[in-house]
Design a protein that fits this description.
The complex is a heterodimer of chains A (283) and B (240). By secondary structure, chain A is an all-alpha fold. Chain A has one domain. Chain A is built from eleven helices and no strands. With 240 residues, chain B is an all-alpha fold. Chain B has one domain. In chain B, 76% of the residues lie in helices and 0% in strands. The longest helix of chain B has 32 residues. The chains are: A mainly alpha (283), B mainly alpha (240).
């Protein structure tokens, strides 16, 4: 594989995705969706916390489960992760669906360019808005909800957790993109999977309160480890040398090494099958 | 998301302690039931927003909007029919969600008047259809209807009190809640199903729902006329 050629394809695809979003989809719409959805979930959690715990916002029950004193900080980081789920897991499927709807999917997929690089460019293009949404949510948690970390945040550990989570979720992104050739239902897929991740991965509550079967599912999804590690780093100030942090990151690393090649393989197979059966451009 | 909302409460205390707080402060004995009723009404609204609300925009995407607008058919009849079909289409899965969540989380209903429940459901549906009719006209004025519909989902879910009683919101935010018909639909259904409310106890909510239905239908009608005039003048109706 010609690496420099693949890098060029990825760069061009990245730029085209950014242009599509900024010129056609509209920035307010994209930002509104990336920020408004998780922001209002955090607001809801703020009201729920006020109802159950009163103005103090402190719940001994929650602290006994997580070791954290600030429920809102916990939720803010969880929902900030929400933007990564969307951008990484659904960015590829969204791009393919877009090409199908615009009637350009066959043209794109019959060029000799590297399709994995093309897809990654699209995912990264979406990720720009995901990262922006993540930063805005953390900022709003800090300034609006008075979220204060219990210890000095370990940015390096959080960054490693986020990067590994994105890499692991990209595997799912490749699979969903491949499925989109046949299912043609990218929106429905995301509407089913997004709440599923939100529920099982503990974005809004600790996974420890799930029934045991629910916890089993939770620990099979990379996002569970990613969000847990990021919370520990940003709220408790846990660094890369901490044993629990190492466990989380190792699990993520294993999932990246197992899932990413698997995701790429599934995508390639599905793309070949779509070419063979002539459904690349149908919608 | 219904389960996420219920577990958000469970993260902060045991079921018994949360139920006693909700009962003490808001007169609702079962917090899961409160969320389930809120979610069901919100889902109906959502169905209409994405069904009737997007209907004209869909005609534009499919290239049939100009054909639709040159027929002599009454536009409002078309929109209302879209609203009713969206309700029928959405009824089965909303019913399934209600039954499933009832079985899993429990609602513990306290029903005194079935008439109040039926009146609450019908009035909510009438108001929500008019929401769909209004948005159908409004969305054609923009080319970003799906983004607007998506962007509206989260704030409306928050302000209409799907997850908590609206009275739990700060006073200033409650003003926003009370200009949303979904709020009254949720309140009427919670009173009728969870607190044994009869027709007289939900009369304010029912009256508010019909006022919304009237206002939104009239607003939808004038928006549609404005849209039609603008489209004929500029010739841009089919563009997206």
């Amino acid at each position: 594989m010609d690496i420099s050629y693949a890098a060029r394809v990825m760069r061009v695809s990245f730029i085209s995705e950014l242009k599509l979003v900024t010129r056609y989809v509209s920035i307010p719409g994209m930002l509104g969706f990336n920020i408004a959805v998780p922001f209002f979930f955090v607001l809801s959690s703020w009201i729920v916390a006020n109802i159950v715990t009163g103005p103090s916002g402190y719940s001994a029950y929650f602290t006994s489960l997580t070791g954290m004193t600030d429920y809102l900080a916990f939720v803010t980081i969880g929902f900030a992760f929400n933007t990564f789920i969307f951008s990484t897991a659904f960015g590829g499927a969204h791009a393919i669906r877009g090409e199908q709807e615009q009637g350009t999917a066959e043209l794109v997929f019959l060029t000799p360019s590297n399709k994995i690089a093309w897809l990654m460019g699209k995912m990264f293009g979406n990720q720009v808005f995901g990262i922006f949404g993540f930063a805005v949510l953390l900022g709003s948690g800090f300034f609006l909800f008075g979220y204060r970390p219990q210890a000095s945040p370990d940015i390096a550990a959080a960054s490693v957790a986020i990067v590994l989570s994105i890499a692991a979720m990209a595997a799912l992104g490749f699979v969903l993109a491949g499925i989109c050739f046949f299912a043609k239902r990218e929106e429905e897929l995301s509407q089913v999977l997004w709440p599923t991740f939100t529920f099982f991965c503990g974005l809004a509550f600790p996974v420890q309160i799930l029934p045991s079967w629910g916890q089993t599912i939770a620990y099979l999804i990379p996002l569970t480890y990613g969000v847990d590690a990021t919370r520990r780093a940003l709220i408790l100030g846990v660094g890369l040398a901490d044993l629990v942090m190492i466990q989380d990151l190792l699990m993520l690393l294993v999932q990246v090494f197992v899932l990413l090649p698997l995701g790429l393989l599934v995508f390639s197979r599905l793309e070949r099958e779509a070419r063979r059966t002539g459904v690349l451009g149908t919608y | 998301m219904l389960a996420v909302n219920i577990y958000s409460y469970r993260a902060l205390g045991t079921d018994a302690s949360i139920s006693s707080i909700i009962s003490r402060d808001f007169g609702i004995s079962n917090f899961a039931g409160m969320i389930i009723i809120g979610t069901i009404v919100y889902l109906l609204y959502n169905r209409l927003l994405w069904g009737a609300g997007i209907s004209l925009q869909s005609e534009r995407w499919m290239g049939t909007i100009e054909a639709l607008f040159v027929t002599p058919a009454n536009r409002m009849t078309v929109l209302f029919a879209c609203g009713v079909s969206s309700l029928v289409e959405g009824a089965w899965w909303v019913g399934c969600i209600f039954a499933t969540s009832w079985m899993i989380f429990g609602v513990e209903p306290s029903i005194n008047s079935w008439v109040a429940i039926i009146a609450g459901i019908l009035s909510t549906m009438v108001a929500l259809i008019s929401v769909g009719v209004f948005f159908a006209s409004f969305f054609v004025l923009t080319r970003a209807a799906d983004q607007m519909a998506s962007a509206l989902q989260a704030p409306i879910r928050f302000f209409s009190g799907v997850v908590f009683p609206v009275s739990a919101l700060p006073q200033l935010l409650q003003f926003v809640s009370y200009v949303l018909p979904v709020t009254y639909g949720i309140q009427a259904m919670r009173k009728a199903v969870l607190t044994g409310g009869d027709l007289s106890s939900i009369s304010f909510e029912l009256a508010s729902l019909y006022v919304f239905a009237l206002v939104l239908t009239v607003a939808g009608y004038f928006t549609l006329r404005a849209l039609e005039r603008q489209a004929k003048r500029k010739g841009t109706l089919y563009m997206y």
